[in-house]
Amino acid sequence: MSDFLWGVATGAHQTEGNNLAADWWEFEHAPGTPIAEPSGDAVDAYHRWPGDMDLAAAAGFTDYRFGIEWSRIEPADGEVSLAAIEHYRRMIDGAVGRGLRPFITLHHFTLPGWFGRAGGWLSPDAAARFLRYVEAISPVLAGVAHVGTINEPNIVAMFAATAGSGMSALREGLPLPDPRVTDVLIDVHHAARTQLKDAHPTIAVGWGVSVQDCQAEPGSEDVLNLYTRPRDEVFLQASTGDDWVGVQTYTRIRISLVGGEPVELDDDTTRKTMNGWEFYPEALGGALRRTARIVGDVPIIVTENGIATTDDQERIEFTGRALQSMRAAIDDGVRVDGYLHWSLLDNYEWGSYAATFGLVAVDRATFERTPHPSLNWLGRQNPTVTHPDAPVHSSTTTTVLKET
């Protein structure tokens, strides 16, 4: 199997369903919550993961990113669920048995409710509590190649800066992350990396940062860094000692100068995805280039990239163009070690099921999985595998990556 990662990504809370002990479950059901609909059963991936992995493997993917849910492992302070640990052990073994390399995320936005009520990341013993969780699950990580500590820590810090608003606070632009939470997350990431490497020296540890293609409008070039530095670059700089850094890119953000401050430009004339982001697939290449300038020799993995759409041909167009921009960055010397598409499944997008990112549609009533043509299209473009019957399109990775 090639060292290049070619896979799909999922999130624990977004797919598993009924994470009753999670702080997000409490937030979804709190009186006056801004959440449009709770996660509920999600897509029942907690029970249906074998079939989901079968779909990914059959399509030609070699890597499968999924999360371990802390609130299942430790539903009450200090009480570790051995049954939950065994569940995730079965998932890891199940992926390996299907020829999929498990790519594990330890924290994907959700926290145990008890941890959140005690102050969350700003509690005095936050790092110690997280490291206790990492220690508890450490035995099941033996043989896992890649582990991500915290998913999109910059977005986590933005949530903290807009407490009580959830994902809705990000719809009008990216707020400044809470600087206290930023510092804590960086310290926790470094401590978790050390703990993981001590227990499993061969594990490659990093984290996936939300990095969009930020472009300055004419006349605003001098203030672009004022926008990007606290929102993503400080987190990328914290990755310089990691084995890899993840880039999670979906769109372009255009920055204009207003009153001496950088602000996001909202252009109603641009083509938009169904969740309101600009349709700009080439953002991936721009984000990779900017990341490489910051992290230097640290290998980059695209840990998320995709589009919310009801038109699968649009998904293929977007993904093909994004991969072309990735190939152009590689040709210019950017080291990219893998691509993980978001997402395998339509799932819970932090307040609603309306935005559909999946290569596979899911019936919310029956949980039936229906693969879109894009699943096999993308899977069979695996740059490390030859598929004689796969058509060659100028927008696919067969062309984009195999020319090296």
Automatic annotation (TrEMBL):
Biased composition annotated in UniProt, kind: Polar residues: 393-404
One Gene Ontology term, aspect cellular component: cytosol
Highest taxon of source: Bacteria
Similarity-based family: Belongs to the glycosyl hydrolase 1 family.
Keyword Transport assigned: no
Residue ranges, annotated region (Disordered): 378-404
Claim: S-adenosyl-L-methionine is one of the keywords in the record: no
Keywords in alphabetical order: Glycosidase, Hydrolase
GO molecular function: beta-glucosidase activity
Protein name, per record: Glycosyl hydrolase family protein
Record PANTHER family: GLYCOSYL HYDROLASE, LP05116P
GO biological process: carbohydrate catabolic process
